[in-house]
Amino acid sequence: MDIHEALYTTRMMRRLRPEPIPLDVQARILDAAVRAPNGGNTQRWHFLAVDDPALKSELAQLFRQGRALEYEKFAAGTGPMVAPAPGADPTRHDETMRRIKGSGDYLADHFEEVPLLLFVFAIDDLGGANIYPAIWSALLAARAEGVGGVMTMVLRNFNDRVNELLGVPVEEGWTMSAMLALGYPRGRWGVAANRRPVQEVSSRNHWGTPFGVDVPQPLWPHDYLAPDLATVG
Ligand SMILES: Cc1cc2nc3c(=O)[nH]c(=O)nc-3n(C[C@H](O)[C@H](O)[C@H](O)COP(=O)(O)O)c2cc1C
Predict the structure, then answer these.
(1) pTM here?
(2) 3-194 belongs to which homologous superfamily?
(3) Would you say 151 and 12 are in contact if contact means Cβ atoms under 8 Å apart?
(4) Is the CB of 14 under 6 A from ligand 1?
């Protein structure tokens, strides 16, 4: 798959089919993930794949409880999902949240059917900086395999219980950075289009000075900014 197609179409997919992800596919996803940059190449990461139905069922209860807690925070006007970036359109944010809630409800209701839960643990992930490259590589590699999913931190509301269920050696310093719910998506892949354009979120040399080029629409699949090859040389 073309790298730009992967970059532009790796959306969060929350409606997943129950078919298992073959082991060789799982291996390719993780083998790509462990190539990711990480500070000092210390590789203090561990990927714990959960596909046992009994475990998934216990985790599903926790996931639904954790999600309810997150939405309570949201309703009370707290938590990370509440405020859009300064200057962003609050109506669009409301609409985005409505759509996330819709597909998130599906995920919560069908959590037991998700074929693979990939728990990502790290020691001192530097606020996520030391582990998100690997997580994103895993999601991109999954995309190349036709596997979709969503990254969630909801289960961190119950870290102790999750660590106990999964037998995590917490005394060594491991903590859960995120969990990926992975599977073959029910829906179709599309460009992550509901993003504020480059010129609205970038500047040059001084905060607020124009970046210098407008990008009113995604540059994949048609990069209309690229020089016309017919007129070059
Ligand atoms: C740190 C982080 C935490 C996230 N947590 C959740 C989550 O708990 N539940 C969920 O459904 N999506 C979660 N997401 C996915 C975002 O909601 C998603 O990336 C965003 O809405 C944009 O949608 P798109 O990637 O499909 O374009 C998370 C993403 C990140 C980076």
Answers:
(1) 0.94
(2) NADH Oxidase (3.40.109.10)
(3) yes
(4) yes
Q: Ligand 1 mean position to 226 CA, how many Å?
A: 31
Whether a cis peptide bond, with omega within 30° of 0, leads into 197 is no
β pairing state of 174-183 and 148-152: antiparallel
C-beta of 181 in contact with ligand 1 (< 6 A): no
Q: What is the pLDDT along the chain (233 residues), one digit of tens a residue?
A: 999 999 999 999 999 999 999 999 999 999 999 999 999 999 999 999 999 999 999 999 999 999 999 999 888 888 877 888 888 888 888 888 888 899 999 999 999 999 999 999 999 999 999 999 999 999 999 999 999 999 999 999 999 999 999 999 999 999 999 999 999 999 999 998 789 999 999 999 999 999 999 999 999 999 989 876 554 44
Give the number of the atom of ligand 1 that is nearest the alpha carbon of residue 80: 3
In the chain, what are the domain boundaries?
A: 3-194, 195-232
Question: For residue 192, which atom of ligand 1 is closest to its CA?
Answer: 27
Q: Are 66 and 57 in contact (CB under 8 A)?
A: no
